[in-house]
Structure formats: structure tokens, C-alpha cells
Amino acid sequence: MRLEHVELRMVNVPLVSPFRTSFGTDTRHEVLLVHVITDVGEGWAECVAMDRPAYSSEYFNGAIDVIRSFFLPDLFSLGNDLTAEGVAPALKWAKGHRMAKASLETAVLDAQLRGAGVSLASYLGAVKDRVPAGVSVGIMDSLAELETAVGGYLDEGYLRIKLKIEPGWDIEPVRMVRETFGPEMLLQVDANTAYTRTDGAHLAQLDEFDLLLIEQPLDEEDIVGHAILATQVHTPICLDESIVSSSIAVDAIELGATTIINIKPGRVGGYLEGVRIHDVCAERAIPVWCGGMLETGIGRAANVALAALPNFLLPGDTSASSRYFAEDLTAPFVLEDGYVRVPTGPGIGVDPIPEVLEKFTLSTETISR
User: Fold this and answer.
1) So what's the pLDDT on residue 16?
2) Please, what's the b/e burial string for 12-48 (b: 16 or more CB within 10 A of its CB; e: otherwise)?
3) CA distance 122 to 64
4) Which residue, 34, 116, 139, 348, has most beta carbons within 10 Å?
5) Is the pTM of this model over 0.90?
6) pLDDT (tens digit, 9 = 90+) per residue, 310-350?
7) Under CATH, domain 122-341 is a member of which superfamily?
8) How many H helices and E strands in the chain?
9) Poorest-confidence range of 15-24, 40-49, 113-122, 302-311?
10) DSSP 8-state code for residue 342
11) Which of 95, 162, 264, 359 is catalytic?
């Protein structure tokens, strides 16, 4: 197919409540949407780069610049030979910028699959028509506030609770949640790189709470440190920020740094690389789950499709739209007995609602071949 135009659209969607992690607090989801127009149809994607380089080195203004200045000229130059599978090879020369690359690959893939009448889930190899939904609970101002939040999510039917933690907000919040809501609840924690190698004994205190995993306790570049930590705690170590490719995933597994992996497609360069990580983990009996980046329905639809692959064995951050947004950009994803349905329509299976999209749009830029 041939790429004709690309629209880079910034939107700002309010969150229903502030979401705090060790990186900071979000009250809104300001995000870049990539909309491609090809000779076979249109495609949409959500770039998960944030407003500042806190989660990773990428940020959305940087993503806009690298897409505009470097990536689109390369994709336009492919002429009629553009395919989603060819996006990554065409952009391989550029170091990093995985989130920007992922947004282009995904938008092109959405257009390609819509033109072929094939769903993203089917194309990726999904084996489920719905996926179990977990919810991520941010750092709160008090234990009472945390108790109320967790209780509310359990009442809604979420099958797994993930608590964001940081030094000073870890042992006691986890203890309270476990003691309050019982031993049967699926519970895990996410540190977002907030600890160091010297915190092994402290983090080992979490072992008594029978957690599914501790997610990314150390710096993303410290894979060896995670291997050391894994000898000091009994709770499984899950890597998130550290895993940026299938080759890094293999290295981390072989070093003993992780026994569970969180796959975030934007972080690894796209859904095709996400499938490769899924596959190398399945070959090594390492379960995976799908992480989230506060996506709107555009990004959530693609994540849900990926989470329907066979080795996604733990509930992911595939929450209902209402977890984050009073009004989503697409028809909302809803919780059904703790599960979210996998879209079956062509491509990502959802479309932005025009009037809602316009309501939350900050700016648009159209770039043509």
C-alpha cells in the first residue's frame, strides 16, 4: 500500500481522579494520536510517550519531531511498497524512539488490516475472546483512602489489584490491603524503578503477603541488580521498563533477573515486537501480561488484542475505560464479570467518536507525501 497523509493530533483527556506513581502525579492524559491515510484506508494509533521523559527518555514533543523530521520521509519514500511489517526495518537505522516507531507501525497496521477486513487480534494470534482485567492503584495520601479505592475496584469486579509503591509507601499499604481484603485476592506491586540494590532486605518484607510479583523495583538499566535481588526475595521479580526488545528479554531471563515479564507494546517498539517477546517467553515457560500507559480506547483496543495471546497468563492493566476516563475517545471498554472483550472488527476494531475527539483536541498537524 501507499502512505498518502499522516495527521499528528494532540489530545488532552481528563482523568477521573489523579493517578500518582513514583514518577509523579497525572491529572489528565495528554497524548499524541497518529492517524494515517493510505490508498487502502485509514489507521489509528496512540503514542504512549508522556509529556516529559520520566518513564523513559521519550516525550511526546520529541516523538512529534522525530516522526515529522525523520520517520515519515522514510515511510513516504517506500511508495507502493509500504507494509506494517516493513516499518520497523525501514526505521531500524534510528537509535531508540521506540514509542514513536510503535505508533507509526500500529497506525499503518490498523490501516492494512482494515483494508483486508482482518482484526488485529486475529492477525497477532489471539486465542481468547475476552481477557481478565486488573487495575492499577496509584499512591494515595492515606491508608484509609487506599482501602476505599481498592474496595471500590473489587466491588466493580476487577480480578487483580496492583499497588504502586515507593520508599515510605510500601510495606504498610500492602499489609493493610492484604489483611483487609483477604488472602485469595490477586495482589501485586509496582515500584517503577524506585529502589536500589541496597533495598533487598527491605523488599524481602513483602514476601509474607503472598504477592503475584514485584514489578520493576530497580533502575531499568540494572538487569544484573535485579538478578541479585531475585536471590534476596522470594516474591517473583517482574521486569517492565528494562524489557525493550525480545533479545533483552532473553538476556534478562537467562541472567535470572526475572521470572515474569510485563509487555507494553509502545515501550518495545510495537505490537509485532510484543508478539516476539511473547513467543520467546513462551518458549522458556516465562508468563507475560500486558501493561498499560493510561491509554484511551484507541490504545486500549490494541492492548486487549495483544493480551488475548496464549502466554498472557496473568491479568493485565486492561481496565475498563471508566477506570481513567469519564468520557473516552471511543465507545467505552466495559467490565463484564472481571473481563474485557476483545474487539472483533477490522484492525483495532474501534473508531474515535468525532465529536469527542474534537472536544479534547489541542492541535493537529497534517503531513503529506
Assistant:
1) 87
2) ebebeeebbbbeeebeebbbbbbbbbbeebbbbbbbb
3) 30
4) 348
5) yes
6) 999 999 999 999 999 999 999 999 999 999 999 999 999 99
7) Enolase-like C-terminal domain (3.20.20.120)
8) 14, 13
9) 15-24
10) P
11) 264
What residue ranges of the chain are covered by domains with CATH 3.20.20.120? Answer: 122-341
* Inter-residue contact 287 to 34 (CB < 8 Å): no
CB count in 10 Å sphere of residue 364: 14
Clarify whether 264 is annotated catalytic.
Answer: yes
Active site residue 164: yes
How far is 281 from 261, CA to CA, in rounded Å?
8
Beta bridge partners of 302: none
Average pLDDT, integer, range 237-258: 98
Selecting among 92, 95, 164, 359, the annotated active-site residue is 164
Residue carrying the nine cell digits 477506570: 323
Domain 3-117+353-368 bears CATH identifier 3.30.390.10: yes
pLDDT band of residue 87 (cuts 50, 70, 90) is very high
CATH code 3.30.390.10 region(s) in the chain: 3-117+353-368
